[in-house]
Specification:
two-stranded antiparallel sheet; binds iron/sulfur cluster; Ubiquitin-like (UB roll); binds FE2/S2 (inorganic) cluster; alpha+beta; 7 strands; 247 residues; 11% strand
């Protein structure tokens, strides 16, 4: 296939962004989307031009590093990570537009690479959990109801990619924050700091400049890990609980 790429290029954090067109011939359906970009970058490097900067690490959908708005949709046309998207989702002659995640809390570093350290600071604000050390506890000494274990596991699947922010018209990171709050708030180990965790993580979310949630649901629609929208209800319930406790 021959693919036409229109990519938003930005030389640095304060440079003017501009859309640049490239042709990428010799693309096979079996290539991953990032392999197609590797082919483009090899061609640019061979011509002495600056390759297109983009993030990736595991390339198997688990690390959360990759993320590109592809034809206006965070992670593109399939419900998956950018690295797990394949060129069989496109056809010969297609023009594909690539943009970085857009949010003031995710400033552009270069081209398609954004700074997502705001997510790290939200997690930092959640703090540690109190766990008694000592001899290994007996198996099943701390029973967790199956529905709670399942929901905590579902929330723990969040890989911190930031697609939820990129898709949200409010640039809210509430799905991400709620996934973290839900994950620990349902487990016995998460109880001692449960109130402080939700209050502090939400305060950091707002301080980073993410917008508020107005229940639009675009976040859950693009989330590659299918984090459900109702984790935000769990977060709100935890926040009310913390307020009742005087936090
Ligand atoms: S909630 Fe989904 S879209 Fe948002 S950071 Fe986590 S995995 Fe990515
Ligand atoms: S590169 Fe790790 S999730 Fe895409």
């Amino acid at each position: 296939m021959k693919i036409n790429i229109r990519v938003m290029r930005q030389a640095g954090p304060h440079a003017e962004p501009r859309l640049v067109n490239y042709e990428v011939p010799g693309v096979s359906e079996e290539m991953s989307f990032l392999e197609m970009l590797d082919v483009l970058n090899e061609r640019l490097t061979a011509r002495g031009e600056d390759p297109v900067a983009f993030d990736s690490d595991c390339r198997e959908g688990i690390c959360g590093m990759c993320g590109i708005v592809i034809n206006g949709v965070a992670h593109g046309p399939e419900r998956t990570t950018t690295c797990q998207l394949h060129m069989r989702s496109f056809k010969d002659g297609d023009t594909i537009t690539l943009e970085p995640w857009r949010s003031s809390a995710f400033p552009v570093i270069k081209d398609l690479v954004v700074d997502r350290s705001s997510f790290d600071r939200i997690i930092d604000a959640g703090g540690y959990i109190s766990v008694n050390t000592g001899a290994a506890p007996d198996a099943h000494a701390m029973p967790v109801p199956k529905p709670d274990a399942d929901r905590a596991f579902e929330a723990a699947a969040c890989i911190g990619c930031g697609a939820c922010v990129a898709a949200c018209p409010n640039a809210s990171a509430m799905l991400f924050t709620a996934a973290k709050v839900t994950h620990l708030g349902l487990l016995p180990q998460g109880q001692p700091e449960r109130d402080a965790r939700v209050v502090n993580m939400l305060a950091q979310h707002d301080a980073e400049g993410f917008g508020g949630c107005t229940n639009i649901g675009e976040c859950a629609a693009v989330c590659p890990k299918e984090i459900p929208l109702d984790v935000i209800s769990t977060l709100n319930a935890d926040l009310e609980r913390a307020m009742v406790h005087g936090r």
